[in-house]
């Protein structure tokens, strides 16, 4: 009994010290990168394959969660997965893009700009393979609304909720629970069927707006600030009506699922646009030249 209790205490302690913000689960990142692959130019596709480590087998999607596996080995990279805000539904780079020590640019927006610049610059000291895997992962993360959640609850991580009957937290609901429930209920637990459904939406339901997804007025190197601003706004809606120990079920699920699917689609389309811009080639997408 004593040992069991100790084990329990240790497990709780481990859970409590879990990272401030996780990431789309493996599925979310995989889907973002799979969708991106389908929008790459031939030149970009070749360049990406050459940069990927051997274990990825030439598939960008296989390498899309690598950044999560190194976030403890590369401790400095941990704050690069998110950009929390004070909760005013807006993202302000100067105010919000820093780590807990106040070092500037240490957030997901800064990271996307940084690794995009590194991949464009052949004299960059960064390992290009790692830059590519970081970029592909962070473009996914920035589209998960709770990665631009509120600072005081660590992007929803400290808001304990019940997802139907299971214990979860608000951040995890958006990282994995919505996707898992959708896969189970609608896609026969088959990831490729869900990816196909999202791709079909891109060419049909979202065909008109899709062209706008990768354009922005920002003069920064990428449009990452815009993506964070969108997520910060969506995060505010995600928090609505949610309190400690809230039970989230069908109502919440059916409101969240279309948002999750669209964010995965936008992440994929935009990642492809960024990579096409870096590696060149004639793109199917309309990419701003500036
Ligand atoms: Zn992440």
TrEMBL record:
Belongs to the nuclease type I family. This is Aspergillus nuclease S1. It catalyses: Endonucleolytic cleavage to 5'-phosphomononucleotide and 5'-phosphooligonucleotide end-products. It comes from the Eukaryota. One of its GO terms (biological process) is DNA catabolic process. It comes from Sorghum bicolor (Sorghum). Its EC number is 3.1.30.1. CDD domains: S1-P1_nuclease (cd11010). The keyword Cytoplasm does not apply. Residues 1-25 form the signal peptide. Keywords: Disulfide bond, Endonuclease, Glycoprotein, Hydrolase, Metal-binding, Nuclease, Signal. GO terms for molecular function: metal ion binding; nucleic acid binding; RNA endonuclease activity; single-stranded DNA endodeoxyribonuclease activity.
